[in-house]
Design a protein that fits this description.
Layout: H1 3-10, H2 13-36, H3 41-57, H4 60-74, H5 81-84, H6 90-105, H7 114-130, H8 138-162, H9 166-190, E1 198-201, E2 204-207, H10 214-223, H11 225-234, H12 238-258, H13 261-278, H14 286-302, H15 321-324, H16 332-343, H17 356-362, H18 364-369, H19 380-408, H20 412-415, H21 418-433, H22 448-483
Antiparallel strand pairs: 1-2
Helix pairs in contact: 2-3, 3-6, 4-6, 4-9, 6-8, 7-8, 7-19, 8-22, 9-22, 10-12, 10-13, 11-12, 11-21, 12-14, 13-21, 16-19, 19-22, 21-22
């Protein structure tokens, strides 16, 4: 039991509510009145006190879900980005502070994952902060570095202790699936009655849901596809299993509806890795895959406007992009090549974490002069090369290399654990998608936070499986003592 857990145990919820009502309610009234007169300082103080109470008493699952929801809203068309731009970091910041309080005040750690996530992650954070010394956008670099701190510490140190129990682990995973799935479904339903939820990408139609970027809908749907299969595989109730298998098939169609070719490629890559991890036992999914492919082909035949999702190059009939006055449909390789050219200006340490935004913005006139109206790298790896150079690439991807190495070198029974295999497929799908989109290290974006959450669950599950024989032996010893 942590220090904060013992504190909450000594103070009953009823007592807490009464004290909070007597102190916070009148203080909030005074603070609001002061803010209306142009003095918001008291309002900020009361808000900070209320946040501190929430941080101590709120379940970590609630803070996690609030963080993911905040990033999705910040990337959506539903909320003004200026209103929620900074507040989306608050839940993860609260989870980070709570983790540090538990570690500093009283902590008996159930697991130690520093070698797998925390150590390479903290080295990466250190490089990000150092880059602020030479960054083109120093303030932005510091802000981005702090957002990375929240994710690495909360997921690398907090979750291994809070989700050490498999029941709580699986419950948190299911809640994240429900939250993201609900947003994707709502966005898909909105496409039937709102043109804003659709996006015409030259020759094919795409469902973008509530998000500003048309690629985000497909990416979010892709990220929970394999976790949804995990839910189906681990569910024991017959009726819920039938509902979940139908949901898996429908979810594949939702990825297709989103029209994100990068997400489509990610799903295929994750599926290949999953088949390799399962070996011959992966044949048990053959019927499900056959049904999904048949429905997808039938859908493409009857709705050809969505069929271009499997075409990775859509040529334009315009004589030249400049004459036509339209955005050129440029191959991803050209944008990757241009990002590498920009990165070669500072190939060792880059221009500063997050400063590539400014560099790509300044490069727009060069691209427009060539009739190219698409800016950015559209590739997470080349963007990191521009941000932090070759050193940043080495530091950043060491985190993934360490965890993936521990998976692929584990015994077969560990690799074929449904939780490990399907979370690994999710991570591989995300890494493949990141080759076509530059979101992997944008720790405040809608897709980055869920991806790192799924990634952080892998070493937690590995440790649970490693501890299982010890727990079994302990229970056997206890039973033997009881017999004596």
């Amino acid at each position: 039991m942590t220090y904060l857990d013992s504190l909450r145990a000594r103070i009953s919820l009823q007592t807490f509510i009464i004290v909070a009502a007597l102190i916070i309610a009148p203080s909030s009234g005074i603070a609001i009145a002061a803010a209306l007169r142009g003095d918001p300082l008291l309002l900020i103080i009361v808000g900070a006190l209320l946040g501190a109470v929430i941080m101590v008493y709120a379940p970590i699952e609630l803070l996690l879900l609030a963080g993911i929801l905040g990033t999705m809203l910040a990337d959506s068309r539903l909320v003004a980005s200026g209103v929620i731009y900074y507040t989306r970091f608050v839940p993860m910041g609260m989870l980070t502070v709570r983790t540090l309080l538990d570690v500093v005040l009283h902590r008996e750690r159930h697991m130690r994952l520093e070698r797998q996530i925390l150590v390479p992650g903290m080295a990466f954070i250190g490089l990000a902060f150092v880059s602020a010394l030479y960054s083109l956008t120093r303030d932005l670099t510091i802000q981005r570095a702090f957002s990375m701190v929240f994710v690495i510490l909360a997921f690398g140190l907090g979750l291994p202790n809070y989700l050490a129990d498999y029941l709580r682990f699986s419950r948190a995973l299911k809640w994240v699936i429900v939250l993201i799935g609900g947003v994707v479904v709502v966005g898909t339903l909105m496409a039937g009655g709102s043109q804003d939820a659709l996006y015409v990408d030259q020759s094919f139609l795409r469902v973008r849901g509530i998000f500003i970027n048309p690629n985000t809908q497909g990416l979010m749907a892709m990220l929970i596809f394999y976790p949804l299969i995990w839910w189906w595989q681990t569910e024991r109730h017959p009726l819920r299993r039938r509902i979940l298998v139908a949901g898996v098939i429908i979810w594949g169609l939702l990825v297709l509806l989103a029209g994100s070719r990068a997400s489509f490629a990610g799903l295929l890559g994750g599926g290949i890795v999953l088949a390799l991890m399962y070996g011959r036992s992966s044949l048990r999914y053959a019927s499900l895959i056959a049904i999904a492919l048949a429905l997808a082909l039938l859908f493409i035949v009857y709705t050809p406007e969505y069929g271009r999702v499997i075409d990775f190059y859509t040529p334009t009939d315009a004589p030249t992009p400049v004459e036509a006055g339209i955005a050129a449909n440029v191959d991803r390789p050209y944008l990757i090549q241009r990002a590498i050219e920009l990165g070669m200006r500072s190939p060792i340490l880059g221009v500063g974490f997050g400063a590539s935004d400014r560099l790509f913005a300044e490069d727009v006139p060069f691209l427009v002069a060539q009739g190219i109206y698409v800016a950015g790298s559209h590739n997470s790896y080349t963007r990191m090369f521009v941000d932090l150079g070759l050193v940043g690439l080495a530091f950043g991807f060491t985190v993934f290399a360490v965890v993936l190495h521990s998976i692929f070198t584990a015994p077969a029974n560990i690799r074929r654990d449904s939780t490990i295999a399907l979370l690994t497929a999710t991570v591989i799908a995300g890494l493949i998608n990141a080759f076509f989109e530059d979101w992997l290290f944008g720790f405040g974006s809608a897709s980055t936070l869920p991806f790192w959450f799924f990634f952080a669950l892998i070493p937690i599950r590995l440790t649970q499986l490693a501890m299982q024989p010890k727990l079994d032996m302990k229970s056997m010893d206890t039973a033997a003592e009881a017999v004596k």
